Amino acid sequence: MTRNPPLAATSTAPAAFDVVRNTAASRVALGVAVALALLAATLPFWGESSWMREFVEFACYLIFAMMWNLLAGYGGMVSIGQQAFFGFGGYVMLMLGNFAGVNPFIAIPLGALAAALVAVPVSFVAFRLSGGYFAIGTWVIAEVFRLSFANVSAVGGGSGTTLTALRGIDRATRESVTYWMALACVVAAIALVYLFLRSKRGLALLAIRDNEVAAESQGVPVVRMKLAVYGVAAFGAGLAGALYFVGNLRISPDAAFSVNWTAFAIFMVVIGGIGRIEGPLVGALIFWALNKFLSDYGTWYLLGLGLMAIVVTIFFKQGLWGFAQQRWGWSLFPTQRVLVDGGRAPRP
């Protein structure tokens, strides 16, 4: 009688796999980004003041668009009222500087923190709504903020007021420090969003966006995660608002709580690619360039923005970067985990 050989002698051990979280493009992009950041940090020593002011404006657009993308593109919460936290952060910065004697540059993160804190009670109202009702509800909340500050005479009422806390600082120093603050905020915003989306909480956020019921059935704390993302997005919006009005030196309710801020953020994210970290970067660059060179054409400029948005949504449904990623596989900020054969599988 012939006996079968032992199982271990005939079976093959399972192949070993590696978890790849970076790509060649992302490693090159990291090196280029570090080099550009270091070069940009030296701009106040050799560049013109107009360049620094342009970058501060671009940084505010980019940070605000990134936070809207985090909230809507990754969290599935489409808000058209994020200007509420943009303006709130700006007003808190101004009040701390003008009335409390706090250095306005220190008041920038404090204004952002105040925006995140006020987002908690606001969420109790906003989260009672869903879908289109949530979007309209956030807009109404922003209008409540605007009307509330318009009736506060201490901050200039409806006509607004000027940031006087920076009067003792010479113009060159003020512009340089504002520029460095903007650069630091951009780097921090990109890094924090990227690290968050690569974590387990980022995976939970994507699960909530795709299907809240299914995510909750798998143990994902849906309400807590949505509140956390809503607070982070409010913090970023408040940071952008405080930074913008430090550079602008004047604030008013109509400027701070204008729905145009969210409209421009939606434009940038849709053009670049919603649900991608690179999307707001590409969209902010395009929007800044169009605003810089074509804004003098008045209504034709606005028509051009609308026409571009229509063309992109029809022919590039995932945005310009989404198209490039599908076509050539570019991913500067990969958040997915890919299993590849590690080549270490033992042979029989």
SSE layout and pairing:
Blueprint: H1 7-10, E1 17-20, H2 24-41, H3 43-46, H4 49-74, H5 83-99, H6 104-126, H7 132-150, E2 161-162, H8 171-198, H9 200-210, H10 212-217, H11 222-248, E3 250-251, H12 253-256, H13 260-272, H14 278-294, H15 299-315, H16 319-328, E4 338-341
Antiparallel strand pairs: 1-4, 2-3
Protein name: Branched-chain amino acid transport system permease protein
Keywords: Cell membrane, Membrane, Transmembrane, Transmembrane helix
Transmembrane segments: 28-46, 58-77, 83-100, 107-127, 177-197, 227-246, 258-277, 297-316
Shape: globular
Order of H and E elements:
HEHHHHHHEHHHHEHHHHHE
What's the overall average pLDDT, rounded?
86
Distance between the ends = 26 Å
Q: Biggest sheet, open or closed, and with what strands and sense?
A: 2 strands, antiparallel
Task: Name the poorly predicted regions.
Answer: 344-348
Rg calculated over all Cα atoms: 24 Å
Relative helix content: over 70%
Structural class by secondary-structure content = mainly alpha
**In what range is the share of β-strand residues?**
under 5%
- Count up the helices: 16
Number of DSSP-assigned strands: 4
Strand order of the largest sheet: 1-4
Keywords: Cell membrane, Membrane, Transmembrane, Transmembrane helix
Subcellular location: Cell membrane
Membrane topology: Multi-pass membrane protein
Organism: Variovorax soli
